[in-house]
Specification:
This protein has 677 residues and is of the alpha+beta class. It has a domain at 3-71 and 246-635. 45% of the residues lie in helices and 14% in strands. It has 24 helices and 16 strands. Helix 16 (432-457) crosses helix 19. The protein starts with a strand and ends in a 6-residue tail after the last helix. The chain binds zinc ion (ZN). Zinc ion binds next to strand 1 and helix 17.
């Protein structure tokens, strides 16, 4: 539940305020790799990799391999037909020798790029099935031209049967239309096309897992996290992801590379938690996963760190099943000073938050925060990636053992540099005053928002006895993100940050407030298709906060819509009052979470997070289209290569940034195919 996605979108940032770090002469780095549909693919740099020790580089290399071999797991989790569709589309692409200028072919290539980006046929953010802009006839004809051994034919399946099987899944908008359905009033499991369940109803799922819960258990395992729930012959079974279980061919390879990593791990603590992770992958025992999580969170000495596992549950409308992901990274020592100061003062922030005392943590344990440099992104973190992560997710582990919070600065940096000068702020900000605020302070304010959201926001507060992690059900993710965002927003404006020396100007927070409100009420709507509601948890959270603050502040005109030359703008008239409102909402959402008050949480989400003015939406879409900016971005990874001497000893690991998007996707499908050969 604790992944922060990039929310700034395409805000232009000049580097003037932070020029100090930008002084060294650098070769110009081309961040843009590819652009299609609503996507721009970027590349990111890995500064500091060359300076790592040989052992650290080798460790990263093995962990990277352990990350990349898990790719097919996520594809399969995201939809039953994804792997077969990928193989079929890639077969067409690599064998095609017809006219590349036709509408069909161009539509086909765009579709393939979209499917690669989303790890399947559903948009990574809206969860809607992609609409192919090529004909079903073109598809059938091209499949027939692919050599049969390059097609994903099941035993005895003919090419015609394959075409018949896949065509409705790709072309019929009514077949499996949505990966994650959050719409109220229907069976969320049966109307979601993810591959976490087969043949079961929402009620059966809820009953199945309710039975597993032990009343009064203070260390509950995350039931259902690493399995698919299926009905066979009228009985319900969990198919567990493990060696010898579901996804075994992929997990065996992950284990192989983790064992290599274990041998060159930096510290004994790291060696031990890798060993535990391997044991968990071999058995599927979620108790071992908790033990691993505790060991992982308590190991803070090593420079290199990684996540590799079934972690986040955004892909399941009930928030039980976790998608597979991996990120390998190393500490950015310079920037980590900022997060250390924040985490050292975690108790002060907790004690002074505008939340009822009984919902506060009496003792904030082991919140460790660092700024990291990502070395590889994989699974559910690739190509679309978070800019901040706070783990583990189990509340009782966070309360008793703490959590690790990271800000991915090389990723944020790539977003910002690639967006510089794109005209976004000039189009949407109310006046030069707001543009200047953002130009001067937004880079620091955004990074700080991420630090505070991850390190303190998610880590704050406590549940009342007997309240379960999943009490808020389908609204849990939205409300959890809102809680973390509000914590960050509230404290961004606190004089304590100046006292701690993290912020110098008292106007810094205003840049974030303005951007947040503008994004929450207006510009994030660029990601929504006409006629649709807001669905994604982070977007719902931002709309909830902004809309609530707008309505509650109406009497005092805190936030105002202004129309000028036919265009709508947002103006914040009272920043201090806005902070007070953020504090009030934080208090209420923390209460909802602590009490497990589903009814109140649901009412907040339904009232403030989902619906918006269609007229404003149309206007925003029109203004945005003129800027020609892709609303979603993601990344290709660098390529790492082992260098060995004549005797076969490893002498170095090199890094290369030149691989393109299509090449990387085809290479991954070739070299890291585990579940679909
Ligand atoms: Zn978060």
């Amino acid at each position: 539940m604790n992944k922060l996605l990039f929310s700034t979108m395409a805000i232009a940032i000049t580097m003037s305020s932070c020029g100090g770090q930008e002084q060294q002469a650098e070769k110009p780095f081309d961040y843009s790799v590819d652009k299609f549909a609503d996507i721009e693919v970027l590349r990111y740099r890995v500064p500091g990799f060359e300076e790592l020790s040989l052992q650290q580089k080798e460790l990263i290399y093995y962990l990277n391999e352990a990350a990349l071999v898990g790719r097919d797991i996520l594809w399969d989790q995201n939809g039953k037909y994804n792997l077969a569709i990928r193989k079929t589309l890639e077969g067409i692409y690599t064998n095609y020798n017809g006219d590349t200028t036709t509408t069909d072919y161009k539509g086909f290539v765009e579709y393939l790029k979209q499917v690669w980006f989303a790890n399947g046929i559903y948009h990574h953010y809206s969860m809607d099935k992609f609409t192919p802009h090529f004909s079903q006839e073109f598809f059938a004809e091209q499949v027939k031209a692919v050599p049969a051994e390059q097609l994903p034919l099941a035993d005895g399946q003919t090419v015609d049967a394959l075409i018949e099987q896949l065509s409705p899944v790709i072309f019929d908008p009514t077949v499996l239309p949505k990966r994650v359905n959050q719409a109220a009033g229907v069976d969320l499991i049966q109307t979601s096309a993810n591959n976490y369940y087969d043949g079961v109803t929402q009620k059966e799922v809820e009953q199945f897992y309710a039975k597993m819960k032990v009343p009064g258990d203070t260390t509950p395992i995350s039931y259902g996290l690493n399995s698919k729930l299926v009905k066979r012959d009228g009985k319900i079974y969990e198919d567990v992801y493990k060696v010898g279980g579901l996804y075994s061919p992929a997990i065996e390879k992950i284990v192989y590379w983790l064992e290599k990593a274990q041998a060159v791990a930096e510290t004994d603590g790291m060696k031990a938690y890798i060993a535990k992770l391997i044991e968990y992958y071999k058995t599927g025992d979620l108790k071992l996963f908790d033990e691993y999580s505790i060991m992982w969170v308590e190991e803070t000495a090593s420079t290199v760190d990684f996540v590799n596992g079934f972690i986040e549950s955004y892909g399941d409308p009930l928030g039980l099943k976790a998608s597979w992901e991996s990120i390998v990274n190393f500490r950015n020592a310079e920037s980590s000073h900022r997060t250390s100061v924040i985490s050292e003062n975690a108790q002060w922030f907790e004690d002074n938050s505008p939340v009822d005392d009984k919902y506060k943590k009496p003792e904030v344990k082991g919140v460790s925060a660092k700024v990291i440099t990502a070395a590889i992104l994989a699974g559910d973190c690739y190509p679309s990636t978070p800019i901040g992560i706070n783990l583990p997710n189990a509340n009782w582990i966070r309360a008793a053992h703490g959590s690790k919070s990271v800000t991915l600065e090389n990723i944020t940096d790539a977003y910002n540099k690639s967006a510089a000068g794109n005209g976004f702020n000039e189009e949407f900000a109310y006046s030069q005053e707001e543009i200047d605020l953002m130009n001067n302070y937004l880079e620091l304010a955004d990074n700080l928002h991420t630090d505070l959201h991850e390190c303190l926001g998610h880590a704050s507060g406590q549940l009342m006895p007997g309240v379960h992690d999943d009490a808020l059900k389908e609204h849990g993710s939205t409300l959890e993100e809102a809680r973390a965002d509000l914590f960050a927003l509230y404290y961004l404006a606190d004089p304590k940050l100046i006292e701690l020396g993290i912020v110098t100007s008292p106007d810094t927070y205003k840049a974030e407030y303005y951007k947040y409100i503008m994004n929450g009420l207006m510009t994030q709507l660029t990601r929504i298709e006409p006629g649709k509601d807001i669905e994604e948890a982070h977007m719902r959270n931002r709309h909830l906060i902004s809309q609530w603050a707008y309505e509650k502040g109406k009497a005092d005109n805190v936030i105002e819509y202004v129309t000028r030359d036919g265009k709508t703008y947002l103006k914040i008239n009272d920043y201090e009052k806005l902070r007070t409102l953020f504090g009030q909402l934080l208090g209420e959402i923390q209460r909802i979470k602590s009490e497990g008050d589903y009814a109140a949480g649901s009412a907040l989400v339904e009232k403030y997070a989902v619906k918006f003015d269609p007229k404003l939406h149309a206007e925003v879409l029109e203004r945005y289209a003129k800027l020609n900016i892709a609303p979603y971005k993601g990344f290709v990874n660098p390529v790492y290569t082992l260098v060995t001497d004549e005797a076969g000893n490893i002498t170095d690991v090199t890094i290369d940034y030149t691989e393109g998007y299509i090449d990387q996707m085809l290479r991954y499908s070739r070299d890291y195919a585990t579940l679909m050969k």
